[in-house]
Design goal:
Layout lengths: L12 E4 L7 E4 L1 H4 L2 H15 L6 E5 L2 H13 L2 E7 L7 E8 L2 E8 L8 E9 L3 H12 L3 E11 L12 E8 L1
Parallel strand pairs: 3-4, 3-7, 7-8, 8-9
Antiparallel strand pairs: 1-2, 4-6, 5-6
Bound molecules: 1-O-pyrophosphono-5-O-phosphono-alpha-D-ribofuranose and adenine.
The site of adenine has 8 residues, from β2.
């Protein structure tokens, strides 16, 4: 199928009441299992962010890895993992945040970013923006410049975009 003929939303499965009542969960596994569609979303994201002159991509665990790592390879830049607290073996910095369904803490290695590097944050989905605001906070503490954020999906009704603080945002699919 040519890239232009993809309707990417057809590849997203919406599961009601997961992980708790009232949440309509956007499941990307139905997209990931289709190699051509997976490739097409990464190609589209690459085309959208190329102009930002990115030095490194940072992606939050776990779904940010399946978007951020292939995008980093496609752009020929490195990948810095942002992990849930307690998972990274080296010296870390941490920050707490609220999610659409709960609370968590994120961490980065202190040497994950070289001060002055231009960093793109990549994740599967923007909901309340808590994950991204926290990721931005960690990257900036390490001296990185957050030049953009790229997502497969944006849940516009949760207004996460407002937490992005002027950073350029790209989302492939929007749910109103
Ligand atoms: O905009 P927010 O309200 O912060 O929500 C979006 C985040 O929530 C999900 O991750 P989750 O923490 O559920 O972890 P997972 O990727 O390990 O499933 C999703 O992958 C985003 O990272
Ligand atoms: N509604 C949702 N679907 C999938 N992942 C999410 N992360 C936060 N909210 C989500």
């Amino acid at each position: 199928m040519s890239k232009a003929s993809y309707n990417f939303k057809d590849y997203i499965r919406v599961i009601p009441d997961f992980p708790q009542p009232g949440i309509r969960f956007k499941d990307i596994t139905t997209l990931l299992k289709d190699g051509a569609a997976y490739r097409a979303v990464i190609d589209e994201m690459k085309a959208a962010v190329e102009h930002l002159k990115i030095d490194v991509i940072a992606g939050p665990e776990a779904r940010g890895f399946v978007v951020g790592a292939p995008l980093a390879l496609a752009l020929g830049v490195g990948f810095a993992p942002i992990r849930k607290s307690g998972k990274l073996p080296g010296e870390t910095i941490t920050a707490s945040y609220d999610l659409e369904y709960g609370k968590d803490q994120l961490a980065m290695h202190k040497d994950a970013i070289t001060p002055g590097q231009r960093v793109l944050i990549a994740d599967d989905l923007l909901a309340t923006g808590g994950t991204i605001a926290t990721s931005m906070n960690l990257i900036r503490q390490l001296g990185g410049e957050v030049v953009g954020a790229a997502f497969l999906i944006e849940l516009a009704y949760l207004n996460g975009r407002e937490k992005l603080d002027g950073v350029e945002l790209f989302s492939l699919m929007t749910y109103e």
